[in-house]
């Protein structure tokens, strides 16, 4: 039996507590320490979960036999914490976004690759079965030439002046762009690669004073693909935060969210196996494997299991590596620059459109070849 990987978790906020519960129940992973600036929170975890609490991050990294670290702190701390871990040869799972500076993210991705270390970013939507199925169909060429992507996310997150937390401070990585728009943008990068230009971006405020409440932008990608981003976390008409993408190609259309994928194959298209001409609808229940431990959604557990699988084979491909996280940070930076009137908003591409590949199936550990 393979010994579990010893991991430490730093940051006991909302996402940190969620990751702790999942990681501690994930096969192949053992949480050996938690770290946070709050002795109260850390002490509670130590008392009731019997996991040692360490006040200093350096002490956590110094633990004998530590294999990995889960970083769930405010974004402005990510770069330094990632680099401290990598300097000790420790694998890293980091919450999104990777950093607040695209150049720094790109450099860290290169450093992780040279060191042969796993660097994974917490964009959980890539582990959602419906979004993964959209990716598989695109790679099969089901839509023919891709022409346009519309990515949107709306929710009632901020409906009054917010208390002062890291999410309400731009210097901490708060705001709609980095906290929420990052998710649909990351999916756009997965489907179409890195954008070439961004124009007409707006970052508007409704309730917040230091951060944005809504983000709108136009993007262009290689091959003539156009894209639009529309995200608003102050939308009173939404029951909860939702993410949805629409993709148009010469041979059809895909509409996808967390619950279902709607696929239209047109007159000149060839339906992949399991699909037909016209509309086919598949639901998340058809496209999702059961994780070993469930909390919040299968995708949160699947990404932790993916982290374990990646640590077992650092050289192999895995979902949400640092290079893909850096590409999303680059796109977010382009949107921010365009909204501020910085021109031209043009990317130095760090992620190229993914080439055609054999049929794949979404699994708990990422993507595997689909058996005939």
Automatic annotation (TrEMBL):
<dbReference type="Pfam" id="PF22725">
    <property type="entry name" value="GFO_IDH_MocA_C3"/>
</dbReference>
<dbReference type="Pfam" id="PF01408">
    <property type="entry name" value="GFO_IDH_MocA"/>
</dbReference>
<feature type="domain" description="Gfo/Idh/MocA-like oxidoreductase N-terminal">
    <location>
        <begin position="5"/>
        <end position="123"/>
    </location>
</feature>
<dbReference type="InterPro" id="IPR050463">
    <property type="entry name" value="Gfo/Idh/MocA_oxidrdct_glycsds"/>
</dbReference>
<protein>
    <submittedName>
        <fullName>Gfo/Idh/MocA family oxidoreductase</fullName>
    </submittedName>
</protein>
<dbReference type="GO" id="GO:0016491">
    <property type="term" value="F:oxidoreductase activity"/>
</dbReference>
<feature type="domain" description="GFO/IDH/MocA-like oxidoreductase">
    <location>
        <begin position="133"/>
        <end position="254"/>
    </location>
</feature>
<keyword id="KW-0560">Oxidoreductase</keyword>
<dbReference type="InterPro" id="IPR055170">
    <property type="entry name" value="GFO_IDH_MocA-like_dom"/>
</dbReference>
<dbReference type="InterPro" id="IPR000683">
    <property type="entry name" value="Gfo/Idh/MocA-like_OxRdtase_N"/>
</dbReference>
<dbReference type="InterPro" id="IPR036291">
    <property type="entry name" value="NAD(P)-bd_dom_sf"/>
</dbReference>
<dbReference type="GO" id="GO:0000166">
    <property type="term" value="F:nucleotide binding"/>
</dbReference>
């Amino acid at each position: 039996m393979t010994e579990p990987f010893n991991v430490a978790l730093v940051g006991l906020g909302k996402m940190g507590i969620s990751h702790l519960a999942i990681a501690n129940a994930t096969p192949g992973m053992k949480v050996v320490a938690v770290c946070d600036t709050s002795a109260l929170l850390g002490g509670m975890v130590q008392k009731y979960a019997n996991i040692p609490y360490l006040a200093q991050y350096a002490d956590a990294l110094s633990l004998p036999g530590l294999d990995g670290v889960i970083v769930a702190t405010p974004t402005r701390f990510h770069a330094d914490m990632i680099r401290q871990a990598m300097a000790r040869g420790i694998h890293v799972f980091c919450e999104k976004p990777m950093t607040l500076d695209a150049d720094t993210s790109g450099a860290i991705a290169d450093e992780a690759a040279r060191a042969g270390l796993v660097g994974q970013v917490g964009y959980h939507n890539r582990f959602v079965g419906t979004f993964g199925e959209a990716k598989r169909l695109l790679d099969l060429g089901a839509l023919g030439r891709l022409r346009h992507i519309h990515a949107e996310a709306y929710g009632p997150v901020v409906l009054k002046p917010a208390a002062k937390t890291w999410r309400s401070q731009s210097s901490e990585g708060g705001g709609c762009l980095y906290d929420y728009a990052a998710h649909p943008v990351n999916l756009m990068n997965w489907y179409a690669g890195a954008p070439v230009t961004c124009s007409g971006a707006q970052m508007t405020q409704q309730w917040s004073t230091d951060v944005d409440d809504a983000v709108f932008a136009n993007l262009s990608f290689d091959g003539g693909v156009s894209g639009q981003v529309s995200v608003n976390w102050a939308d009173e008409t939404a029951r909860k935060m939702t993410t949805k993408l629409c993709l148009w190609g010469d041979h059809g259309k895909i509409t996808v969210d967390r619950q279902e994928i709607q696929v239209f194959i047109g007159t000149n298209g060839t339906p992949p196996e399991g699909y037909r001409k016209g509309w086919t609808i598949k639901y998340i229940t058809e496209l999702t494997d059961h994780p070993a431990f469930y909390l919040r959604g299968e995708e949160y557990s699947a990404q932790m299991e993916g982290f374990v699988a990646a640590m077992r084979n650092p050289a192999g491909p895995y979902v949400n590596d640092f290079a893909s996280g850096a590409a999303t940070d680059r796109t977010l930076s382009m949107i921010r620059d365009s909204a501020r009137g910085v021109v031209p908003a043009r990317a130095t591409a760090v992620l190229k459109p993914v080439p055609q590949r054999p049929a794949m199936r979404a699994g708990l550990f990422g993507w595997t070849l689909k058996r005939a």
